[in-house]
């Protein structure tokens, strides 16, 4: 899928490379300075379809339960609508519950607490870390992936939203939940309806492919400390 910005979604092989790269393995890079957001933000981007700036603004207060479904309330991007995104089981499997307890214990309000902002925006720091800048290699290049493919299409952290959109479209059609597709992407629907029920949203979110069942925050911490 091509985006209007000349970006494309990651291929399955590229997703495997990203989510089995050193951040999600036992290898620590030379002179690396691991941050918690390095582990969590790409996972959040893939499983929620949110932009990096939205994820950077998330606080513990944005974690809510609706009709027994736990999820995050996003509402910081002016380009798209506020929305409730159920938490995919793969995020819990990756240690999200322990991480949230860690945040609470250490009195961190923002979920990506160690991601710095520039003029109250977090996307610039994420872009440089993920895609690199000048001679500085990003996580993308360190995983052996180019910024631009042979067709001139770019990949970036926002490409994960395109992967989210691709899968969501299929699952929404299969579940006869077209309104959920528009809602979860924060898009206006030409056929306005009531906000989809949380269980219906979860039904569309949960079939997203688990890209690395061995990714876990505790494993990241162990790699961090070695």
The residue fraction in helices comes out at 40-55%
What Rg do the Cα atoms give?
17 Å
Q: Topology as H/E string?
A: HHHEEEHHHHHHHH
How can the largest sheet be summarized?
3 strands, antiparallel
- Summarize model confidence as the mean pLDDT: 91
Distance between the termini: 40 Å
**Global morphology:** globular
Structural class: mainly alpha
- Portion of residues in beta strands equals 5-15%
Helix count, per DSSP?
11
Largest sheet, order of strands side by side?
1-2-3
Q: Total strand count, please?
A: 3
Describe the structure in your own words.
By secondary structure, the chain is mainly alpha-helical. Helices cover 42% and strands 6% of the residues. It has eleven helices and three strands. A three-stranded antiparallel sheet has the order 1-2-3. The radius of gyration is 17 Å and the shape is globular.
Task: Summarize, please.
With 226 residues, the protein is mainly α. The protein has helices at residues 12-19, 36-48, 52-57, 89-93, 96-105, 123-131, 139-142, 159-174, 178-185, 198-205, 217-225; strands at 63-66, 69-74, 83-86. α8 runs antiparallel to α9.
What's the arrangement of secondary structure elements?
Layout: H1 12-19, H2 36-48, H3 52-57, E1 63-66, E2 69-74, E3 83-86, H4 89-93, H5 96-105, H6 123-131, H7 139-142, H8 159-174, H9 178-185, H10 198-205, H11 217-225
Antiparallel strand pairs: 1-2, 2-3
Helix pairs in contact: 2-8, 8-9
